[in-house]
Design goal:
The chain has a six-stranded parallel sheet. A two-stranded antiparallel sheet has the order 4-5. It is built from eleven helices and ten strands. The protein is 43% helix and 16% strand. The chain starts with a strand and ends with a helix. The relative contact order is 0.11. It is α/β, with parallel strands linked by helices.
Amino acid sequence: MTTIALTEHVGRPYEHLYPDEEADGWTPERLRQVFENFVVEAKRLKDQYATTHPEVHLLIGFEGEWIDEDPVEARNRIQEIQRRYAATFDTWIGSVHHVHGIPIDYDAACFDRALTKSGGDEDQLFCKYFDAQYELLTRMEPPVVGHFDLIRLKCREPDKNLRNRQGVWPRILRNLARVKDYNGVLEVNSSALRKGLQHPYPRGEVVTAWTEMGGVVVLSDDSHDPSHAGVCYDKVLKFLQDLDVREVGVIQSGNSENANSKLARMPIGTLAQLPFWASSA
């Protein structure tokens, strides 16, 4: 791979710290400092690689989390980052990790709390998740939509076809159409495979619906550790080939507010011939 995007999560307020962050005494100020340190280091690496490895293109971005119970705060937090680092970021990822204000991908206990808030009905929880995502897409128009169906991770049947969940598929099609309207892209995220699911995010039926709309996908490993980099990319490549996806997007350097205006496209056949696959086998 010769184009790599470095991203970090934007911080969250006290009421939306994760349980381990609370237990370890983390604060929003500390999260903010981690983010600022990331920006400094990412810029240093980008400058270094431009000189020492000019064939490698490093991009810098961020992941903005939409919290359904606090949409104004979420919007303001993302917009503040966009203003403050307008000259730094090449793109950004919009994502949903909370439903009913509760993290749904952290652990089974948190998922069950969110499920209880949805009357114990997983399909209703999925609907609530995709409604929160639609609000993110409508208000913020993220250029990259992260782990589109993350809600699957901790549910009872994570590999169930999403067409078979009551009320869910129309919401998925609505959300995909919204992304297409503003020229966004979906990431195909290999971390789901690393965590034991049968499909990456999103599932195959979602990718097929998206590409039939003319939508473009980009690759992501969602690394939270160097050991995660590129993990399961071989399975993602086969997944895309099996779905007859013809090309992937390659994000270019530029203003994050119009990140996809210069999106390059690479045929799957060309992608499959890159030296990366030999080194990752």
